[in-house]
């Protein structure tokens, strides 16, 4: 007989599993959470997790795994939850996803793994994200660390530029393969967009720190306050410091504005600056830290945009004490790219949605923002994005008094690495050009992925790029053959 441990099997008959309804995630009451920065979703307890896991019908060909950008073995980890072996479950997740506590909170599972769940056909999908969060939180509360198998050291060293989700994922995968990994971060705190861009009530900083500390325990090294492109260049890392490969994952952190009159008034922020000041400069801990952003207590604010960043900014403004928090978007709610859960939570908390409304000018007095002039829109034919194009309605201009505005209409490429690495090819928008399959760049031994290649996307898609990069870097280090669409060379 084989000594291999068999995967636990769900004890309930199929019909009994189908009778169990999806378990709602417990959450703070809206009237309470709108005034604090504590986490909105409270997580499953073991009883809820076990009952939810029992709903899995153990598909022979689980579509949920195919729909997961990082390929988490959903059925296997859910079976371990059914068995009550939560540490083994999180170890199973970590084989493919080194940030389970993070993705369990911010990954849009409803558009990916849960979308592929066959339970959707007759009800609601398995709450895969909630279960992933549960096992990660269980591990954290026990103070134990369930590690995946680790390969013996190879002697190879990789430098990773940026400690966001793409960089951290690459680090986690490469360290499991036995390579030495050092992550360089420009800011004073690790985590990239996970710490400066996502508010405390959606992703507590302590959760990010814990997942990063787990990577440190796996052997990953970290160095903060290093601006690659200024403090040290890519060529210096390769030639003087002797790294065998570099992965550039600097993100798309350069904010875009709307190019309308008045955007230079005091009180107008980019979403990047606003959320960074709240998160890293601790404005969310008012009154202990009360200087990082303009005081909006009792005032009216507006956020412009329809994505998750806009939702984060407007919900943050409400928690900072805004009297009225407006979300102004030029299309209808149907076209908003934000997660449905975030929209629902924002409405429950009191955010006011002004749809089919487009700003045309910020109005000020003495250099300070006082109001925004907007025009009403109607939807015309679809544009290149597939969404119906908003068209202004003549004579529909209105003015809304506001004291602060946050512009959340997207970002562009962070230019630092490209500007100091002349043989690193970029596209016309300034993003690094990389082979879509291997993530190899025009420069030998340099890989790039995540938002710095694709433009702004979700955390999980950045992690998908990180996994792809790790696989490609490992192939390069073991084969010594550098092959791209342009050339084939050897080390």
The number of strands is 18
Spans of at least 5 consecutive residues whose pLDDT stays below 50 are 486-491
Approximate shape: globular
Strand content: 15-25%
Strand order of the largest sheet: 3-2-1-4-16
Level of helix content? 25-40%
Q: What is the CATH class name of the largest domain?
A: Alpha Beta
- Name of the CATH superfamily of the largest domain: FAD/NAD(P)-binding domain
Q: How many distinct folded domains?
A: 3
Indicate the CATH topology of the largest domain. Answer: FAD/NAD(P)-binding domain
Q: How would you portray this structure in words?
A:
- The protein is an alpha/beta fold and 491 residues long.
- It folds into three domains: 129 residues, Fumarate Reductase Iron-sulfur Protein, Chain B, domain 2 (Orthogonal Bundle); 175 residues, FAD/NAD(P)-binding domain; 156 residues, FAD/NAD(P)-binding domain (3-Layer(bba) Sandwich), CATH 3.50.50.60.
- The strands form five sheets. The chain has a five-stranded parallel beta sheet with strand order 3-2-1-4-16.
- Strand 8, helix 15 and strand 9 form a beta-alpha-beta unit.
- The longest helix has 21 residues.
- The chain is globular, with a radius of gyration of 24 Å.
- The C terminus is likely disordered.
Entry summary:
The protein has 491 residues and is an alpha/beta fold. The protein contains 18 helices and 18 strands. The protein has three domains: 14-142, Fumarate Reductase Iron-sulfur Protein, Chain B, domain 2 (Orthogonal Bundle), CATH 1.10.1060.10; 157-253 and 413-490, FAD/NAD(P)-binding domain (3-Layer(bba) Sandwich); 255-410, 3-Layer(bba) Sandwich (FAD/NAD(P)-binding domain), CATH 3.50.50.60.
């Amino acid at each position: 007989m084989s000594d291999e441990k068999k995967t636990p099997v769900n004890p309930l008959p199929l019909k009994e599993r189908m009778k169990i309804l999806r378990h709602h995630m417990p959450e703070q009451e809206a009237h309470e959470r709108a005034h604090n920065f504590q986490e909105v979703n409270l997580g499953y307890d073991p009883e809820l997790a076990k009952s939810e896991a029992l709903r899995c019908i153990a598909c022979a060909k689980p579509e949920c795994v195919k729909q997961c950008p990082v390929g988490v073995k959903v059925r296997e980890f859910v079976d371990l939850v059914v068995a009550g072996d939560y540490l083994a479950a999180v170890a199973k997740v970590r084989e493919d996803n080194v940030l389970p506590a993070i993705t369990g909170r911010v990954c849009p599972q409803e558009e990916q793994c849960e979308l592929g769940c066959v339970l959707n056909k007759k009800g609601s999908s398995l709450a895969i994200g909630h279960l992933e969060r549960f096992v990660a939180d269980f591990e954290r509360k026990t103070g134990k660390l369930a590690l995946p198998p680790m390969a013996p050291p190879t002697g190879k060293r990789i430098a990773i530029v940026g400690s966001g989700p793409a960089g951290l994922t690459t680090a986690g995968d490469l360290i499991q393969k036995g390579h030495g990994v050092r992550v360089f971060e420009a800011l004073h705190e690790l985590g990239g967009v996970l710490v400066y861009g996502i508010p405390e009530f959606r992703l507590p900083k302590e959760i990010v720190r814990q997942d990063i500390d787990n990577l440190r325990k796996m052997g990953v090294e970290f160095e903060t306050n290093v601006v690659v492109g200024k403090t040290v260049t890519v060529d210096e890392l390769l030639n003087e410091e002797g790294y065998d490969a570099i992965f550039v994952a600097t993100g798309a952190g350069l904010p875009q504005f709307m190019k309308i009159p008045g955007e230079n008034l005091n009180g107008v922020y980019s979403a990047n600056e606003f959320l960074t000041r709240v998160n890293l400069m601790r404005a969310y801990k008012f009154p202990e830290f009360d200087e990082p952003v303009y005081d909006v207590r009792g005032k009216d604010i507006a956020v412009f945009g329809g994505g998750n960043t806009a939702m984060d900014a407007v919900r943050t403004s409400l928690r900072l004490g805004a009297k009225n928090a407006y979300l102004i978007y030029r299309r209808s709610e149907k076209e908003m790219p934000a997660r449905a859960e975030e929209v629902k939570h924002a409405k429950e908390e009191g955010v006011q949605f002004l749809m089919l409304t487009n700003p045309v000018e910020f109005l000020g007095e003495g250099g300070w923002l006082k109001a925004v002039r907007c025009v009403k829109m109607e939807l015309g034919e679809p544009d290149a994005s597939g969404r119906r194009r908003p068209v202004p309605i003549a004579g529909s201009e209105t003015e809304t008094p506001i004291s602060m505005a946050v512009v959340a209409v997207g970002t562009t490429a962070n230019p630092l690495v490209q500007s100091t690495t002349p043989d690193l090819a970029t596209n016309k928008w300034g993003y690094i050009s990389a082979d879509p399959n291997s993530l190899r760049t025009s420069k030998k031994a340099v890989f790039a992925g995540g938002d710095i290649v694709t433009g702004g996307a979700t955390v999980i898609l950045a992690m998908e790029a990180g996994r792809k990069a790790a696989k490609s870097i490992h192939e390069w280090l073991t084969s010594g053959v550098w092959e791209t669409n342009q050339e084939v060379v050897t080390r």
